[in-house]
Amino acid sequence: MRAVAPVAPVAPGCFARVPATAPEPTAEQIAVLKGTPADHDRLAAWLAGPEAPADPWANPALPVEIDGEGRFEVVRLLTPVALAALARLLLAGDPVGPVLATTPRHCLELLCEPGTARGLALYGVVRSAQSVRCPRPGRIARGRHWLSVPTTHQLTRSADLVKAMLQDAPVPAGGAR
């Protein structure tokens, strides 16, 4: 895999908390999001790409940098913000693409449609990039694991994510939503 320069961070005013009334995904929704072993294999093959000569996860204890240029963008959100956005996406019936939990950073990384980061230069986005450092789907490596493994090659849509995030964004003092 070739190295890809990350897209510039877009986090000058990110928020870490959401209102107590913000929804959270239920245990049943999380169980469905995790997918099956067949879903994990399908996502691994898609992430590796058609040009991959071999399984990039030769060492299952290590995450691998996967280039998403032209295929996906990664949007990193702090866990509380991401969980509220995921719950709102699920409640609305909007597609949720692959989601990587990065425990050491207290973040979730959502694989979104290319071009998503341009539309998300708003509160809540910690970082965006065109590559993701991840374990093989179905495995855990260095505090990272896949929270969502869709049954198809769907990605989270920019407009849906913006709508979900704005519902829990803090309102500036004296401002109205």
Q: Can you give a write-up of this model?
A:
The structure is a single chain. Helix 3 crosses helix 4 (158-166). The N and C termini lie far apart (44 Å). The relative contact order is 0.26. A hairpin with a 2-residue loop joins strand 7 and strand 8 (144-148). It is built from four helices and eight strands. The protein has one domain. Mean pLDDT is 80; it is low at 1-13. With 177 residues, it is of the alpha+beta class.
Key traits:
single chain; 177 residues; alpha+beta; two-stranded antiparallel ribbon
Rg over C-alpha atoms, rounded to the nearest angstrom? 16 Å
Counting DSSP E segments of at least 2 residues, the number of strands comes to: 8
Number of domains: 1
Largest beta-sheet details: 6 strands, antiparallel
Distance between the termini: 44 Å
A few lines on this structure:
The protein is an alpha+beta fold and about 180 residues long. It contains 4 helices and 8 strands, in the order ααββαββββββα.
Write the topology of this structure.
Elements: H1 27-33, H2 37-48, E1 64-67, E2 73-78, H3 79-92, E3 99-102, E4 107-112, E5 125-129, E6 131-134, E7 140-141, E8 144-148, H4 158-166
Antiparallel strand pairs: 1-6, 2-4, 2-5, 3-4, 3-8, 7-8
Helix pairs in contact: 3-4
